[in-house]
Amino acid sequence: MKKYYTYAHYKADTNELFYIGKGINSRYCKFTGRNQYWNHIVNKHGVKAVILSRFDTESEALEHEAFLIDTFRDLGFKLANFASGGVGQSGWSLSDHQVDRIRERNRVIKLMYRIIGTCLTTGKQVVMTGTEQVRLAGFHYSHVIACCNGRAKTHKGFVFRKELL
Fold it and tell me: Going from the N-terminus, what domains does the chain have, and what CATH number goes with each?
């Protein structure tokens, strides 16, 4: 049997495609280690996993994954894939040193921006820098960033934008 495959995840309640992946073994039906957007969809709709095609080599599976993601996005599907596919290796993980470097880089990036929230009803503005200030102001950082990046319109009655410090 061919070792590598591409797979799709569908919303269980509507049968709507929302994710394309490449895997080996039982990756297609493992629901841990997924992005926040994927988790939100599954928590709301449930998930149905289907293997689409099998391949002898990982490079063939990666190429097919990238092709499927591009094709479905071109057709207007809103996929939970952050990457456009065709990248990564099976069983690959970051070292502790690499994880620490990424955390430090992300911490520095977060402190480069001032986040400004404006209340839709009162017009009151809240200015915050960093995740801790956002949390102390009563907001969820990921929701605020989704507003800043245009993935959401409002959070807790506020609109948000970010400016460089």
Answer: 4-74 (no CATH), 96-164 (1.10.10.10)
